[in-house]
Each structure stands twice: as structure tokens, then as C-alpha cells.
């Protein structure tokens, strides 16, 4: 009980200070006692953007606000993991070909969705947060009536391929795909980023 009260109090204090504009850098001691049950996962809302930009910044300057807009347009849900402050996220895309790099895929069966860009702040890793996000994404897709989900694995990250397989994913096909995206940084400079990927799929 003492450990639970300490964890809850620290999470609430950190949240209040952050929302008042005190953006203390996240360090591993903040998450010393965290468990998956302590983490709340919910879809992004407008008042979250400032905290996301400060605690989970991206080279893609408007990443979080762009995803909020896409969510508002009904194309996806941007799920955020909270422990007083945002500590991770995953993107649930209803129609995979709405994600620009996936327009190259053909013959996806009806009812297929897409989970991408799973991320957990480095200081909060190894605490079950990634699994909590992944499970929340799967559950949200089931609630929406989807029966299968795609995942992307970069060739430069073979460890993630093993993670997908352990979660029941299988290779979509034997092809290697080009994954390309364009983003604008905080200085207004446009960047093009590309890598090689495999696509995996699993039934929900």
C-alpha cells in the first residue's frame, strides 16, 4: 500500500507541475516503481499537444498536432500512454492505405487495420509500457470491428521482428518494401526520410 500511495502521489504531482508549465526532464528515477497498471492509455486531445511537444518531441515539428487533426478527421486514433505526463504513444490507423507509405500494398483483406510508430520514452522502457500500448491498440481495433492488423518492421531493427512474431504476427509476403515519408522540422526545413521494411500481419 505504501508503495502504491507513493507512486500515485508522485504521478499526480508530476502531472500538476507539467500542466502548469514546469517541464522537468524525465529521468529513470521518476519511473522507478512504475507498473503497467499505473499507466493510463487514452486518445489524444487538444490540451495534450503542448505536453507531448515538450516531453516527447519529434524532428517532425508538427507530428502530434498533425495526428490530432487526422484523428479529428476520422482516419485514425492517436493513443497516448500517461504516467502523470505522456511517456509513449502508438498510432491506430483504420484504413492502412491512408498511411502514405502503405499505398503500395495491394489485395489487403477487408477488415485489416494498422498499428504503427510504437514509442516509449527511454527512461520508461523495460516497465511493460510498450505492451500496455500495444494491447490498448489491439483492443481499440477490435472495438471498431477490425479482424486483422498490420505492423511494420525496419530491416535495421531485427529485434522488433522477433517481438512481432512473439505477438502472433506473420510475414505479409516475401517482399522488401521502400518506406518513405516527408516531414518539416521546427525551422521549416523539409526532410525526406526512407528505409527498407517488411510488413507483418496478425488476426485480432
Main sheet overview: 8 strands, mixed
SSE pattern: HEHHEEEHEHEEE
Measure the end-to-end span.
36 Å
Helicity range: 25-40%
CATH third-level topology: Aminopeptidase
Helix and strand content put the structural class at alpha+beta
The DSSP helix count reads: 5
Number of separate strands: 8
Shape: globular
Name the poorly predicted regions: none
Structural Rg: 18 Å
- CATH class group: Alpha Beta
CATH architecture: 3-Layer(aba) Sandwich
Keywords:
204 residues; alpha+beta; Aminopeptidase; 8-stranded mixed sheet; 30% strand; globular
What does the model show?
This protein has a single domain (2-144), classed as Aminopeptidase (3-Layer(aba) Sandwich). Helices cover 29% and strands 30% of the residues. It has helices spanning 2-19, 49-55, 63-72, 129-143, 158-166; strands spanning 40-43, 76-83, 85-93, 112-120, 148-154, 170-171, 177-184, 190-203. The protein is globular and about 45 Å long. The model has no long low-confidence stretch (mean pLDDT 86).
Task: Summarize this entry quickly.
By secondary structure, the chain is of the alpha+beta class.
Structural topology:
Layout: H1 2-19, E1 40-43, H2 49-55, H3 63-72, E2 76-83, E3 85-93, E4 112-120, H4 129-143, E5 148-154, H5 158-166, E6 170-171, E7 177-184, E8 190-203
Parallel strand pairs: 4-5
Antiparallel strand pairs: 1-2, 2-3, 3-4, 5-8, 6-8, 7-8
